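User: Hi! I'm working on a homework problem where we have to compare a predicted structure to a textbook description. Could you give me the structure for the chain below?
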Amino acid sequence: MGRIPSFLAAAIVGITIAVSAVRAEAQTSAMSFSSVALNVADLARAERFYSEVFGLVRTFQYPPQGDPIEIGLGRPDQQGGMGLLLAHFNDDPLPDGKSAYGRIIINSTDARALAERAVAAGAKMLRDVGQPGEPVILFLSDPDGYEFELYQASPGGE
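Assistant: Happy to help. Predicted structure tokens:
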């Protein structure tokens, strides 16, 4: 019997973790995540990208007056939903071998269409690890190099 390719094994592990997280919901109903924070090179460009592609709107800025160093984005139509905090504190480089920290995972009912929209707005398609009949799992990077994953459940599945 042949070995499972490493990218397929990684995808299976990722899906298993995602399903485990859903099951953990009942155990963690008293907690919620507030935001994902990204340090970006250009606040205006990052805000434009996440607003145009994902429909996020500015919910706050800090400081409240003048040029911001932080911008909060969210979906006011989704009460209690997680937000995105964009920040520009300095221009220090990331450690060697790092283009960004972490990734954002976004659920979608049409991941491929959303990916096309993201690429048109300046994102780079990194890889597509989905297989026909299985969940769509697309990895892209935003204009600052932050990786994000677009996840679409398989038809009739999780």
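For your comparison, note the following. The domain at 99-158 is CATH 3.10.180.10 (2,3-Dihydroxybiphenyl 1,2-Dioxygenase; domain 1). The beta strands are 35-39, 57-62, 70-74, 83-87, 103-107, 124-128, 136-141, 147-152. Good luck with the assignment!
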